[in-house]
Design a protein that fits this description.
The chain is of the alpha/beta class. The chain contains eight helices and five strands; from the N terminus they run αβαββααβαβααα. The longest helix is centred in the middle third of the chain and has 21 residues.
Length: 178
């Protein structure tokens, strides 16, 4: 399945941070929980594990044009469905057992009011551009770049770093674009 750019970068970032990453973990939403009267399907965009920690990550380029309260409630409900699935599934419940579960929304753009509601419900907000900058910093570190990167996107980013196309000035946002 083709990934969105936010999801793709998020998975690569957490892989480089040393997490075991699984993408597009499909789960069924029972009709009692869907609010639609019929069962449906959804997926966890990125599920990441590290010792003592499990991450349930929803990725969005933006969180929509509906009112902040409505969008926030949909996201909160989605995290409830996703964590309920992980806790009940025969395979995943063993993986998350004894870990601190973090709920993370990765977005390219959001609304402050929605952020406040989500944070009040223990949902962390990470921004795409911040993750991109952090990933580039990880790639720049010598100890993280042993040999070539297998992933084409990471290889391209490394080449752009090596050629000076990505530099401190650009990462700080001081570079003007045409």
């Amino acid at each position: 399945m083709t990934l969105g750019y936010v999801e793709d970068l998020t998975a690569k970032y957490f892989m480089k941070k040393g997490y075991l990453v699984n993408q597009n973990v499909w789960f069924q939403v029972p009709k009692e929980l869907s609010g639609k009267g019929v069962a449906g399907w959804s997926d966890i965009d990125v599920f990441a594990l590290a010792p003592g920690e499990s991450l349930v990550i929803q990725c969005k380029s933006f969180i929509g044009t509906e009112k902040a309260e409505i969008v926030s409630q949909k996201i909160i409900r989605w995290f409830e469905y996703a964590t309920d699935f992980l806790q009940k599934d025969d395979m995943y419940r063993h993986w998350i057992q004894g870990t601190k579960m973090r709920k993370i929304l990765v977005v390219d753009w959001t609304v402050k009011k929605a952020e406040e509601i989500l944070k009040a419900n223990d949902i962390e907000i990470l921004y795409y551009d911040d993750l991109l900058k952090k990933l580039i910093k990880l790639l720049k570190k010598g100890e993280k770049r042993k040999g070539k990167e297998d992933d084409p996107t990471l290889r391209m980013l490394c080449a752009m770093i090596d050629k000076g196309i990505i530099n401190k000035k650009i990462l700080k946002g001081n570079e003007k674009t045409n």
